[in-house]
Write a structure and sequence with these properties.
This protein has about 200 residues and is mostly helical. The chain contains eight helices and no strands. The chain has one domain. The protein starts with a helix and ends with a helix. Keywords: Cell membrane, Membrane, Transmembrane, Transmembrane helix.
Length: about 200
Amino acid sequence: MPFSLWLSLAAVCAMGAMSPGPSLALVLRHTLGGGRLPGVAAALSHALGVGLYALLTVWGLGALIARQPLLFQFITWVGAAYLAWLGIKALRAGRVATWQASGVITSRAQAAREGMLVALGNPKLILFFVALLSQFVSPEMSLAAKTLIVATAMVIDGGWYVLVAMALSHSSVLPWLQARAHWINRLTGVLLLGLALRVVLGPLG
């Protein structure tokens, strides 16, 4: 995979991870309720769930491109519509909601379990990855390239939420994030709308 193409993948994965949502609320809750280690446990287990969905999507897309190109095209267009909807939703979002996470007494085991369940219990991740990864997967793609795609999604997701858990040890970080949540939403919305348009135009080269 060319480095420029990988950078595009990494950028979209990063914005997807940074977008306020139930995953961020989960990490905030366990960090505030149990400290740094439960927050990190939730972040890492969530990344494993994301990696599993990315793995299933990459291998499924590869088979679909080779055997059912018309069905693959239809699915990518549905994915593009979903990305556009997410983008519009992000642009219209405010600065509160998912950023208001109160702390509860928690443990590393509980945090790890809930982190995995939040990821695997969100079937919309499959739609997101189908639309996203359709731009990067090709029938002739090597095993190493597919592994790189999955690892990128998993490492960026885990890295961001671990960073959030670590940063929350400083009391000034959460108010800073809350004050700028609307800008993250807007940037995410623009990126998702741009990706939806790119899906309609055709795969990246």
